């Protein structure tokens, strides 16, 4: 995969530009388990913020699955999940 990316980069950019790049990092798509883990981490942060304000909530497993499904975008990864959680601030 990295060789393919480097080939595309060298085909589309001039050597002067490529020489300024220190490293090419290839990110693989996140899987369902990764998204669920990220959602759980975000929820723990939300629980803590709410607890500091004197509130307590519980999220069901079904709600966590829904958050995970809606919080992932193939282009942006898990960023929509974080944005949705930030709206609770």
Summary keywords:
mainly alpha, 89 residues, Helicase, Ruva Protein, domain 3, 5 helices
Distance between the termini: 39 Å
* Structural class label: mainly alpha
**In percent, how much strand structure appears in the residues?**
under 5%
CATH architecture of the largest domain: Orthogonal Bundle
Instruction: Report the CATH C-level class of the largest domain.
Output: Mainly Alpha
CATH fold-level name of the largest domain: Helicase, Ruva Protein, domain 3
Write down the overall mean pLDDT: 84
- Over all CA atoms, what is the radius of gyration? 19 Å
Order of helices and strands: HHHHH
Shape: elongated
| Total number of strands | 0
**Structural domains: how many:** 2
What does this structure look like?
Pfam families: ClpB_D2-small. InterPro entries: Clp_ATPase_C, ClpA_ClpB, P-loop_NTPase. With 89 residues, this protein is an all-alpha fold. The protein has 2 domains: 1-29, no CATH class; 31-89, Orthogonal Bundle (Helicase, Ruva Protein, domain 3). The chain contains 5 helices and no strands. Helix 3 packs across helix 4. The N and C termini lie far apart (39 Å). The mean pLDDT is 84.
Brief write-up:
GO terms for molecular function: ATP binding; ATP hydrolysis activity. The protein is mainly alpha-helical and 89 residues long. The protein contains five helices and no strands.
What layout of secondary structure does this protein have?
Layout: H1 2-12, H2 15-18, H3 32-52, H4 61-70, H5 79-86
């Amino acid at each position: 995969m990295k060789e393919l990316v480097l080939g595309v980069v060298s085909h589309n950019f001039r050597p002067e530009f490529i020489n300024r790049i220190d490293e090419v990092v290839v990110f693989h798509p996140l899987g369902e388990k990764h998204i669920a883990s990220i959602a759980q981490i975000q929820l723990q942060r939300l629980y803590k913020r709410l607890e500091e304000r004197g509130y307590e909530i519980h999220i069901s497993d079904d709600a966590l699955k829904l958050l995970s499904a809606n919080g992932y975008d193939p282009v942006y990864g898990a960023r929509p999940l974080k944005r949705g959680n930030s709206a609770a601030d």
